[in-house]
Amino acid sequence: MRTNVPVFERGEITMDGVLERALSNKQKVEIVYIDSEGRITQRFVRITVIRKDTIFAYCYWRKQVRSFKRENILSAYPVQARYTSLT
Question: What are 57's strand-pairing partners?
């Protein structure tokens, strides 16, 4: 059941919540998923469209928009900005 309360305010962190938040914030996400040949792979993506069974995202490795079956996504988490020290 969906509510209008953001996922993080309810104390839950779900993969759907991470994906939806990444879409709304245009945030880069790292996903781990099973590809069409059964291999586990990892990608850095920017979500462009979320549908019932499919996620469309710009893949930084392939350098194009790709589709990912939701059922094959094993994990998803936001990529934190990395800062380097000037000292």
Answer: 47, 66
User: Two tokens at 68?
Assistant: 């990912």
Q: What's the token pair of residue 3?
A: 């509510």
- HSE (side-chain half, CA atoms, 13 Å) at 42: 3
Distance CA 2, CA 79 (A): 25
Rounded Cα distance between 80 and 70, Å, is 22
pLDDT band at 15 (very low <50, low <70, confident <90, very high): confident
Q: Rg of the chain over CA atoms, in angstroms?
A: 14
pLDDT at 65 over 60: yes
Q: Would you call 55 helix, strand, or coil by DSSP?
A: strand
Whether 66 and 59 have beta carbons less than 8 Å apart is answered as yes
Q: Taking 50 as the threshold, does the pLDDT of residue 5 lie above it? A: no
